[in-house]
Sequence to fold (1280 residues):
Amino acid sequence: MKHNKAQKFGMVIDLDKCTGCGSCMVACMSENNVPFRKDESDKFLSITWMRVYRLTNGKPFPNTDICYLPRPCMQCAGQHEGHSPCVSVCPAIATDYSTETGIVSQIYTRCFGCRYCMASCPYHARYFNWWDPIWPDGMEKYLSPNVSPRMRGVVEKCSFCFHRYQLAKEKAFMEGRRNIEENEYQTACTQACPAGAVTFGDLNNPDHAVYNLVKPDHKHSGRPTNPHAFRLLERLGTNPKVYYLSSRKWVRQVGDNYLKNEAKVKKPVHHG
Amino acid sequence: MSTLDDHSKEIPEDTAGGATAAQSPEEKIKKQDNGPGGPIILFFILGLFASLIVGWIIFPKLLYSQKKQPIDFNHAFHVAEVENGCESCHFFRKDGTFSGAPKLEQCIDCHEEIQGVDPDEIKFVEEYVSKGREVPWLIYSKQPDCVFFSHAAHIKGADMECVACHGHIGESESLKVYEENRITGYSRDIWGKSIGGFKKNTWDRMKMDDCADCHQKNYAIIEKTGVKTPTKRFVDHMIEVVSPGSSISGKGTSVQTERDACFVCHK
Amino acid sequence: MKIGRRGFLSFVIGGAAGTALSPLPWKLTDDSSIWTQMWPWTPVPKDGETSYVNSVCTLCSGGCGITVRKIDERAVKIEGMKGHPINNGGACLLGLSGLQLLYGPTRIKSPLKRTGKRGQGGWEKISWKAAVSEVVEKLGNLRSKSQSHTVGFVSGSDRGTIPRLFERFLTAYGSPNLMRMPSVRDSYELTLHMMQGVQALPGFDFENADFILSLGSGIIDGWGSPVRMFRANSAWQNANVKVIQIEPRLSNTAAKSSKWIPINPGTETALVMGLAHVIIKEYLYDTGFILNYTNGFEDWKRLVMDNYSPDSVAAITGIDSGTIVVLARSFANASRPLAICGRGDGSSPVSLKGCTAVHALNALVGNVNKKGGVWAVSDTDYISWPEIEMDSKAAAGMQHERLDGAGSKKYLFSRYLMNRLPETVNSGAQYPLQALFVSGANPLYTLHDTKSTEKAFDKIPFVVSFSSYMDETAQNADLILPNHVFLERYEDVPAPVGLIQPVIGLAKPVVEPQFNTRHVGDVIIRMAKGLGGSVADAFPWDSYYSCLKETLNDNWETLVDKGFRSDTELMNPTLESSFDTVSGKFEFINPDTGSMPQFKPVSIEGDEKLYPLVLIPYDSIRLANSYIGDPPFAIKTVEDTVLKGKYVFVEINPKTARSAGLHEGQRVLLITPKGKAEVKIHLFEGIMPGIIALPRGLGHTAFDDYLAGKGINFNTLIGTVEDPDSGMDTAWGIRAKLSKV
Fold:
């Protein structure tokens, strides 16, 4: 019996197209029952699974430039598959890496809130529920049953809308299929992006758009052949599954936190 | 502090002294009479049995409140009437999601008018159908919100029978009492009727370990026996369905547990 | 038998052993851990059957199709409708957070009548019957006293059946005072009327243009139909279309453009004239179009050649002449260049001379009414209702001049001048306004010079709001007749302004009305019936639903099913039939007024010596800036360099800040001739020295705790500047100073 190759869901975000409009952030919040509070201006406490960062090139007027960078969970695979920064430190098995999908899960009922994972995540992709979630005055009516609301004292993060994968699989079973099509499993942010800047799919599947956008060049340790492609803080070896595209060099450099007068950059190690 | 200590020491001594003066002879006699083992073991046994009774009999009575379903329902009768077994009423929706307990919409096909003389049916039609109110059924197998359970994966994907988890409820002639856990609010059927957590059948309990047992068993069978076809093909099929891409060597897709990854059953 | 110490101990030990052998501790541990994992107060969303409803979002005038996901009777998610001609699956963050506006705490749950003083928040719930009869009585009294013209109506839009019902009501009742909230559409409509002789909507064929010159338009900051603009912007990226952004601040649009050219604020028209100069001088214009289809070119050419050489324009705009020449050449040499105006999100008009100048520039390169160009789009008129039979009272009322001065001798061609209403009411120069109805608009928040607007509202004895939310205007009303929100009601949605394709959308109820609200269309019909006579006769429908169904006629089924109807067949007007002027040609100079496109500086309020800085607003798609306020999800996306706690940040160039001794995050007092506010400093390299900028859309005083009291409303700091040609408010900024606290 033929075995499927394991899937590796990933995302490619075209920063040239991203306008920083914030649709992805809100699409995510409303898809995933993310709570909100009266004052959300303290961004250390504000829970946004998907957050759009604003980067500037730091040059004086009029040579200033801005680039927006949406940041979901990077679903790091780590140096060997599953050695994600957060998964490897979790003492409660509350966060886990699935070799079936390459997605890092977070089980809220299992989490006891030690926040090691938050400390270990170099992308600030994890958030802690300091308060009970409160939906005022009937607003809990819009809560989706596909994602369980989190309780006070646990960590949460982007799941690549994993419930959509589950639902797509249910539909596939119903129709006697085992595999799901590319368009059957798309994240909420991908769908909502009015600029079409976000592409989502299986990085292992040559039929998927993401594969072709960041097609690995096996002669160069699997780096994408696309010269505009990069990943955040690639040199840490976290091996993220979120790729970015930018035609602007300063953006690509900021993405890997290059030092100002850094000498020739060593080729990042890439795990495919 | 020291004065307080001194003071507090004094009082017990006084009382102790007084007590000894009054009672010690009698007590001594008693102790000699019975020997050191007798009453102490008795007390031990008393305590042991009392707590065993509390733990095994009184505790479950206190833990669960008994709730009656809004109306009674005869599964056996209905199963005989319909053509498609359980799925006639507990059906899959087109998108693969499972409908669970039927809504009025399904019942109304037959029960728009009163069909017979059963008082429960009369109550059903009068109280619910004609008023357009849904019946607030108490769901015995209701899982916590963090659980994602795919009926489609098990029934459609792995060809399992409803009985495997739900037991022979389809053959019952009336609904049993719903016992609600006063602490968690969930049905007793999740933990199982046996307060000790023992089970004989796969449908006796519905805790996470029970899911895991079954999932794990499939891996174990392959590992131990290197089973031959057709069993192997069936198990292969199961693994493939539940978690494509996982290795046949018995490892699941979870990096942490080497079982199935948490997101398979959690949301 | 007495229980001694040892006996007791032995009993306890036995008990402990027995307990350990019983399920009690283990079961309790398990249960209590389940309890702590799932606190009973954490809501558990109810599961059910999933269904989808197609509708149209009406939170702005963008006209996007939406697909709402429902679980049984609950709406749980709004998504962009796939295959919709405007947004094709995309959605903006306001639309995506629409369910918070449906179920949110800011909604008005039943008709309310003011108790106590106006604006103090004292309300009593009344029945719909009582509410409508109160309105009818008031209106009946005014009408019987021949004062029907003293009733005004403010609407967010004037297209579609709802605004047309307002118009119909006012006409049958006898008042000319229907006012639409201002936007750059006013300028464009007037420009098309002045230069092409048509009453039409501007249409921009962005999808086919290959060079975009934007004079401060926030293409991706909310200008036009926002999602359509995002999609166009991505298409430009794919096709390597040049986008040139002209504005003093590095907006998101500027950052995404091919080139950002900073310009002294308020001098955009001078640049346009300079570009025209180069294009004419180098014979880069479309001679065929100019010769055959235009009138007055020679006179305008003389004006341009005499006054707007690159050097003189450079001195005004601060852009060097070389850049101007290069820009002019690349604009003219592109095959389908397109110039657009309207600053920021386009919610403020621009001067008529400025807008005609931009249109003249488009005409120079001949891209009027053709692929990739500016179109005059005649509104698809699907509304054909019977003629209104006016009685003598109505006819007399309609004879009065409009209070806002639109259509008066001074502003003959302007259609609506809502911006002038506060001043007219305050000065009392004309007849007093006795009653004002407000629907789909929040003038007390969105009009410039909030204080003056508030003063005017204080003078109006009877203010009725149809708002679904407790916004600033509703808060200052006497009676609130809450409308259903967009997910609870039927409403036709005409194609958004700027679109060329004729698209009609239909918003339809996704869920049952959540509260005791009523469709504003039904309330208007009730009001008319209550007044009786010829007013009632003008409304032959028994409900808004039947009115709408009858109006949409053959389209009804398609619209209910799909949510929209779009005719791909474009009515491409031939150039011969495009111009309805006396000459039948495109007029560079309006024959009636002699008005010519040119640069006349719009001077802003404030003395340069007292106020050394210039304060301009900026718009962000994340901050809703019109009738709708930001819902909690949207406000959550606002960056902490824009808003922190209750403080908004004013953007300032580090150089300017340094010379004033100001540093990042410092609290300062921002003072303009109109008002002052405490703000924080944000150093931003992307803003021209000497200019400071504040976002619009913050500083609400109404709505709920998730929106109110955050930052300040820009409109409280800015005054109005009336355009002498059109009467529109063309204020683009105000002088300001910062002082340390």
